[in-house]
Each structure stands twice: as structure tokens, then as C-alpha cells.
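Subject: CENP-V/GFA domain-containing protein structure
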Amino acid sequence: MGSARYEGSCHCGRVAYEVEVDLDKTITCNCSYCQRRGSVLAFSPAQAFTLLKGEEALTEYRFNTQKIQHLFCESCGIESFARASLPDGTPMVAINARCLSGVEPAELQPTLYDGRSR
């Protein structure tokens, strides 16, 4: 697949975005939050992400280290992306690949990230 441009959204479409992301480098995480949510995550620099609509519809959730801004639609409850920074301060966006148009999650080959042990 490699890096490509995708459109994504929450379930109801109130939150929508475009992103350039590499779906060959997806992960699943076994931390208490990600395991329950079931996302397949891909990461993109913030400058490769454009929120098209829905900033006012986003509700934030933070836990543990409080560093990841988990954002979900207040209408349908779907977290289609999250915002955070790398340790060097570079702004990043974690994309829920399950929310990207034209992407079949069963075709992705995510690597397991052991968030439970961190």
C-alpha cells in the first residue's frame, strides 16, 4: 500500500478529515483503552492531516500519562483519530484505519504494540 491520501470520518460523518498515511505500518495496541476500542492505528505527522469538519463536535478523553488527546464525535461516539506529540515534540496524529474510506481492515497487517507493559 505505502503512503497515500485517504478520507476518513466518524460513523455519522459529523467529523471528517483527509490524511496522508502509510498503511503498511499499522499497529494494534493491548493497553487497557486500545484493547477495548479495537482500533487499527496508523501514524501521520500533523501537517499531513486536515480536519475538514467537526472540530466543534469533538470530545476529548485523556488517561494514564495524559499525553494523548483521544478525540471522539459527541454524536456517534467514534474515535476516528487522536492527537499527540513524539518525544521530540513533533505533533502527530494517530488515525483509526477502520475509519478510512476504501480501506478493508482485514487486509492490513498490523504489528502488536505492547502498551499494557508501558
